[in-house]
Amino acid sequence: MSMTFIQTFLPLALTISAPIILASMGGLISEKSGIVNIGLEGLMGFGAFTAATTHVLLESSLGNELSITIALILAMIVATILSIIHAFATITFKSNQIISGTGINLLAAGLTVFFAQLIFNQEHTKPFQIGMKGYTMFHIYPSALIALIVILLTWYILNKRVFGLRLKACGESPQAASGAGIPVSKMQYIGVLLGGSLAGLAGASMVLTQSIQYSGNFINGTGFIALAAINFGRWRVGGVTMASLLFGSAMTIAHMIGSSSATYIPREFFLALPYIITVLSLVFFDYIKMRRIGSI
Amino acid sequence: MNMKKVNSSKLVQFVDFSIKNEFIMSVYVILLGFFLSTVLLYLVGLKPSVMYNTIVQTITGYDFSKYRFNARYIGTWLTNSMPLILTGLSFNIALRSGFFNIGAEGQFIIGLTFAQYFAFLLPPVMGVTGIVAVIIGALFAAGWGAIVGWLRGRYQTSEVVLTIMFNYIAFYFSRWFSQKYLPGANSYRADNFPQEALLANSWFQSITNGSLLNNGLFLVIVSLIVYHIIMEKTKWGFSLRASGFSPLAAKFAGIAPVRSAVVAMAGAGFFAGLAGGIVYLGSFTFANVIRAQDQYGFTGIAVGLVSGGSAIGTLLSGLFFGLLNAAAPLMQSRGIPREIATMISAFVVIFIALSTGIKLRLGQWVIKAKNKEKEMD
């Protein structure tokens, strides 16, 4: 039992959790600076599309490792560039963050498949030969390692560096931050763009570990799961990490069950579990908050 | 000198008029969306004229390449517009009450799931069963929306995050429920509907040369009228709008905030649920186990944002986005990727997001220019 657990469940759970962790860290940094980005899903799509396309085109000439490295970097760059739209709309123009994020999601749904049609003449990218290669006999992918590094860096920067404290100040009280001489807009731009680049990295590592091609429906809610993880993790690095791992595990169980009639608890329950848990936790914490204020 | 002054003040007047008129702003936003798509098509070496040709063909039914009229294009346009008008109403009724309904996608799914279920369950009566099944589905969707409304009103939980979560819960619930309770279900479809449960209308089909235009059209028209009457003419609508303008003032005026939230989100759920039932009982002869979200809910956000909130605005805006959806397969067949339709919607939404800032800046400029003119006089 324990051996099969280590050999099958653990590597798969880490593979599925890594993109969720990366995207939720990105979303967390952005939200800490005061800008909610519900466009995470779309930015992941741009990252996944860019990485899949780059890897297909470079794989044979540059070799697996180099091609994947370039794919990851390009995915981050493209997602960062597109998150400029969100930053510009919400910070410079003080527009509604939800409308702008919805626009990013719609844009990803259209633009990625549009370019897939132009480049490959079909509604998805051409399949690549070999994606990311796993380390060790347990096939733990480098994406898990990248996720670990990102978690530690995010925690260190947000909690131990002056930069992180300033970023959080911009989110919690922009007026006070501005009064203390912090360039609020600039900090928020950095927050949104950093978040965007991580979402791009998340999409890229997702497509390179879990698939051999990008299609329009590929991200399928992972970006929204990352949003859920941020909320369920109560906006703390440790909490968000645990939430991402929990949600990744639920998806892994659903993946391993395969078809819905195989077990007593249907597969769909595990797929919906992250969202159900998030709803319950949000309502619970808001209930506590209302109790404390005394309005219930 | 005199000439120049007249010109500049005309420009100021024009800008001033534009930013204060919602309809004109919507037209600009749509034109900008088309402009960007045209530029994009040029840049990648495709012919934008093909896009405009297919759009004109979908509106008029006249195929310029073959010199032939075919009413089916018009029927397809209306069929595509019906669900979008409804998801647009869903977004609008929530927005005007002060809530952001990102949940039309999930409400759509709940609507279609129960509409399909009741299509098999209800006694078969020609022309009635289908419509009743759709309405029952919409009532379930209203309940689904009301849960979010209640949580929002009672515990102040963000309706944006809640509705996003509820979209996916609805999606997986629908897959589980449909596979378990629809007759003959496998992982992607179930049995054919009974003939009586279809929304098909043979007269509509004959005048539109066999398009999928169906009885859902009546439900859409009734919905538009009901929406108009509720929002503009009744106490209910007034209290909803009051809560939207200023929740605190509404509360002090004796309007219960929890009830407003529940009513607004239930209404939103009802309209989106109707859309789901109409699409799945109107355009298919068999029951579906949905495999992906259809994006009607998210396009509904674009419809609502462009519409400016009124019933007539939603109708026009729904017809516009329906036009894009209907023209998309035609474009694809003529070598332009169909995703250009989604992209125009995306550009429109992004421009609407930007328009608040643009309006603000232009407004400041107008005031400055007017002051300057006064000084010159």
Question: What is the secondary structure topology, with strand pairs?
Answer:
The complex is a heterodimer of chains A (296) and B (377).
Chain A: H1 2-32, H2 40-62, H3 64-92, H4 97-120, H5 142-160, H6 162-172, H7 174-179, H8 184-210, H9 222-232, H10 237-257, H11 267-293
Helix pairs in contact in A: 1-5, 1-8, 1-9, 1-10, 2-3, 2-4, 2-8, 2-9, 3-4, 3-8, 5-6, 6-8, 9-10, 9-11, 10-11
Chain B: H1 2-20, H2 22-43, H3 48-60, E1 62-63, E2 68-69, H4 72-96, H5 104-121, H6 129-155, H7 159-181, E3 189-192, H8 202-207, H9 216-233, H10 235-245, H11 247-252, H12 257-282, E4 286-288, H13 296-307, H14 311-333, H15 340-376
Antiparallel strand pairs in B: 1-2, 3-4
Helix pairs in contact in B: 1-15, 2-15, 3-4, 3-14, 4-9, 4-12, 4-13, 4-14, 5-6, 5-7, 5-12, 5-13, 6-7, 6-12, 9-10, 9-12, 9-14, 13-14, 13-15, 14-15
